[in-house]
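Think of the structure tokens as a kind of shorthand, similar to the way a musician reads notation: each symbol stands for something richer, in this case the local conformation of the backbone. In the example below we present two proteins back to back. Begin with the first one, reading the sequence and then the tokens, and try to describe in your own words what changes along the chain.
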Amino acid sequence: MSAPGGTIAAHGAEIPVMGFGTGSLGNAGEAVAAALRAGYRHIDAARKYGTERAVGDGMRASGVPRAEIFLTTKVSHESLRPSDFARSVETSLSELQVDYFDLLLIHWPSPQMKVADYMDSLAHVKRQGIARHIGVANFTTRLLDEAVAACSEPLVTNQVECHPYLDQAKVLAACRRHGMVLTAHCPLARGRLVGDPVLGEIAQAKQKTVAQVALRWLIQQGDIAPIPRSSNPQRIAENLAVFDFALTPDEMARIAALKRPDGRVANPAFSPAWD
């Protein structure tokens, strides 16, 4: 699999450094096709997004062979009981029109169930060969430790919100401790970074966009794979163009200092108690 920027290894998985998110995209099929044609090879979907059919259509429309695409999808927290889990997986296969996922995630930890109660279902899908790799999303450090301990197959990622306004040092340290990649959703804080003066100053100096600087800050940390989303073909291409420049240690530190207590943008009512 040839992906711009290469891949990050974790427990046998080779995860392309830059992914393309598909949540809340009205034209997900067209956007996915545009992303793949632009060079993305990591596509992130989810049952909960309601876009799996469009994502599958976009993959086929792109002309990129299935074997070259690292495809992720997720089982929602409402579907973690064994029979519901199996049904969710079958529905995702049908909607995406594929016969395997490269990565299957638990989308959110269940507020009602213990982590150990659904790790067997996740591991079973990997043993069946339906998912080549497995992981979790939106897990705190405590829940991640529980998941790793309870799962009989290795977890390769924890997908969490991560951007300069949100301090995820504890979660990143936990991922590193378990040999996992941190996949960064909302890497541009849903547009909140755009007017930031520090990012703007660095972007101007680099002749790059604010989004490119924020994404570069993430990938330059070495084991973070951001998954920005956009429906605009120009921005889709721009977000991938982050491998031809580097940030200095001082610039990295200035961006890290932007973290703030109210930085989180994805915080639904069923969220766990965050680190």
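Once you have a description of the first chain, move to the second and do the same.
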Amino acid sequence: MSTQAAEAPVNQSVERAARMLGLFSVDEPELTLSELTSRMGLTKATGHRYATALRRAGLLRASNGVYSLGPRVVELAAAALAGLGVIRVAEPYMLRLVSETGQTTVLSVWDGEAPVVVRVTENHERLVRIVVAAGSRLPPDSAQGQVFRAFLGENGDPELEAVRRDQLAANAVVVEGVTAVAAPVFQGEQIVATMALVGTSATIDAEPASVMTAALRDAATGLSTELGFVQNRKETR
């Protein structure tokens, strides 16, 4: 039996509904019906049927011809986050890291294509600080994206080899003047999250041997240990 024949058939209605919901983002929380149908390649009548069904389910809401995600999505998101054990146990490690470094600390998970921010801890005593919104989807070449790609098995890139070796990545320029440095968080033998420090380029010391990156790695390692990760690689000192 071929792999294609063995796969379960795709329900087109479910797939289209999921795609429609996936068009909304932090950057675009509101979309018109015309925008939804054009991006999905549907007729306006077909798009309206899907939008209506999603509204009845509480997954979309509409006001003055503009659609946004509905209250049911918030409930589902809360349930999904509750199922991520790493979020429940990360808080003390993130608070300690903020205290030690004075920088914003960000926890991200992988959504299959890119990192998504699920928890942010800020230094509220700092007059000027970088604000990162929970729910933000980060570029694959961000520091967090590099860490995920390195430990999810992407090969052939010398930079990712260095990330695997150092268990650390600093970002390419995603936002001018802002620097992020990230480390992996493991559960068992699998990467489940990244922990990152985000700040101005003047305040983040992303060198692998710096005091700041050592604090980041210590926090990520402590969280990994609590999640059941056992370091079986030889220490390199």
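Compare your description with these statements about the second chain. The first strand starts at residue 30 and ends at 32.
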